[in-house]
């Protein structure tokens, strides 16, 4: 990640939440949506973040196939890619067009022999 790139945060809440109209501070991009499933949240150094699986699913919204493949590879190289967890997370996500790309990546990595576990 570029040091000067905007930071993306997810804020869970209802669509009628009055805070949703608030402007984000400079350098911050706020994504709003329903509360995340507990399995889609990881705590890193005391800060709640999206899990690796949920992050890969969310990246499919803003990446092309080859860039997303690179993120999948990086997760696999770090021992963080769990295709079973990814499949479960994919099942919890509200429908979006990018899920077809996520499905392609899961199939591609399964065909390459990536086991379900780390």
Mean pLDDT rating: 87
Helices, by number, come to: 4
Q: Number of DSSP strands?
A: 4
| Rg, Å, rounded | 15 Å
Order of helices and strands: EEEEHHHH
Between the first and last Cα atoms, what is the distance in angstroms?
24 Å
Strand content: 15-25%
Derived from helix and strand composition plus strand pairing, the structural class reads alpha+beta
Quick one: overall form?
A: globular
**Fraction in helix:** 25-40%
Uncertain regions: pLDDT < 50 for 5+ in a row? none
Strand order of the largest sheet: 1-2
Taking the sheet with the most strands, its summary is: 2 strands, parallel
Short description:
The chain has helices spanning 52-59, 65-77, 83-92, 99-111; strands spanning 7-12, 28-33, 41-44, 47-50. The chain has 118 residues and is an alpha+beta fold.
Compile the SSE list and pairings:
Elements: E1 7-12, E2 28-33, E3 41-44, E4 47-50, H1 52-59, H2 65-77, H3 83-92, H4 99-111
Parallel strand pairs: 1-2
Antiparallel strand pairs: 3-4
Helix pairs in contact: 1-3, 3-4
